[in-house]
Amino acid sequence: MLSSMGSVKMMNLTPKLAISIQKLRIDEIKAGTKFRNALVYALALGFSPQLLAPVLAFGIFLAKSAKDGNVLDPTRMFTSLSLILILTNPLSQTLQSVPQLMGALSCIERIQIFLLSEARIDHRTITGVNDREKSYPPDNYEVEIKPSDELALADFSGSGKTTTPDQSVRSNTDELSEIVVNDCNFGWALEGKQILNNISLDIPRSKMTMIIGPVGCGKSTLLKGLLGETLFSKGSVRISSTSVAFCDQTPWLINATIQENIIGFSEFNAIWYESVVRACVLENDFEILPKGDKTMAGSKGIALSGGQKQRVAIARAVYAKKDIAIFDDVFSGLDAGSQQLLFSRVFGTDGLMRSQGTTVVMVTHALSLLPNADHVISLDPDGSIAAQGPFDDINQQGSCIYSFDSKAEEELAGATAPKTEPTLPDLPVEESNSGHGDFSIYVYYFRTIGLPAMLAFFFGLATFAFLASFPSKYIQQSTWKQTD
User: Which of 12, 116, 134, 384 is the most buried (most CB within 10 A)?
Assistant: First the structure.
């Protein structure tokens, strides 16, 4: 955060950002003006019966009793006030519920619009879900981590012997295409310019495909297009299986335990779960958390750090054992040590994903990882494909927008093991100074709202205080007079 603020100051963007943020605040205030006005009217109407009824009732009785000679004694006061409260409380609650009622009707209207809308149409073509001959690890498959922090593959027969990837059972259909895109335009609007244009690509089965490109060129849109979540104007997308795991660049976690977030909707298998936890470098984090993997992640994973949330999301995608796994820049929130260990254990030559024969599609900005890819797709800033193919071919092509930096690879290879990241409960808590306010802040607010609005505010506040305390004060004063 501090480095980002320093960069903003160095680039002299502070005035422009201030103007942009101020404009967003003004737009937000304008958008909520109608709702706030309706809320004020509803509250005024809701409190009016309860506050005005005692004053009007006692005032009218006193005006009439001056002619008739009747006396407003405490007995009549208590009885009248009780009847007034019995009558006005339901009316006040009904009037105060008007905004909630209107909100509920608006929600029902939106639900009705959604139910009456056309069903979602998947523009993809499923070429064959059941023709795959993949070899998955059995339920008792366990990862053995060598001292060098690399994974050894257990024999798929369950014997526990370590083998090389060439000895594992592989399908003769590995060289076939998993996803084929022909001349597609992807975007988020039916009309206007599309984000991605004339996209044609071939993603091989049981291989790792990495997608690279500058910021804003449409890498995430391409992944959403492969998932069938974006609109397109032409072309075709053919995918061989609907068994897909997706891990977004912003981790999605539910308010449940870490273990429940990793398992998701899959069945729990202790050995496979422990293997995934080790591969995703979560063991050290579980040791320092209060309840280990039984710790509640909190709403949107608020109890975890950014790197921990990202690794938990990756672990869920790995644990699911899907035919296709799509990852959208999942290493951006990890340090170099965590990135190196997690990549080698999950995506490396001896990693879990290759041991399962899973087709991996990954968007990344970590150029040092590219040599590990079987297939590389490079996007241009205008949303078209600059080049695609094996890394060596891509790196040699002049049209590729990236060039591989060998120093980055050496730095990543020499990265040390990650340090355990502090969780939210371990962070220092600053003492609140809210009790020591500065009166100049209130002066600023009063000047901003203006003198008429300020006078109206204090008048309404005084009126509310008088009407709210009138019954009790009047009864108390009348009782003292009767006693005297």
Answer: 134
| The residue to which tokens 């998955």 are assigned | 136
pLDDT (0 to 100) of residue 12: 67
Assess contact for 312 and 282: CB atoms under 8 A. yes
Please report which residue ranges of 32-172 form alpha helices under DSSP H: 33-68, 74-96, 98-116
DSSP 351: S
How confident is the chain (484 residues) per 10-residue block, as mean pLDDT?
Answer: 48 79 89 81 79 78 73 72 78 78 88 86 73 45 44 32 34 65 81 77 91 88 88 82 90 90 90 92 88 87 87 93 92 84 90 90 88 90 86 70 44 46 44 57 80 83 78 64 56
Name the residue among 109, 101, 113, 151 with its Cα closest to residue 318. 151
CA 390 – CA 373 distance, rounded (Å) = 8
Q: Are strands 236-239 and 177-187 parallel, antiparallel or unpaired?
A: antiparallel
Task: Name the CATH superfamily, with its identifier, for domain 124-424.
Answer: P-loop containing nucleotide triphosphate hydrolases (3.40.50.300)
Enumerate long-range contacts of 459-466, CB under 8 Å, 24 or more apart.
Answer: 464/47, 464/51
Q: Where are the domains of the chain?
A: 33-116, 124-424, 439-483
Dist. CA 218–CA 267, nearest whole Å: 35
The C-alpha angle with vertex 216 and arms to 214 and 217, in degrees rounded to 5, equals 65
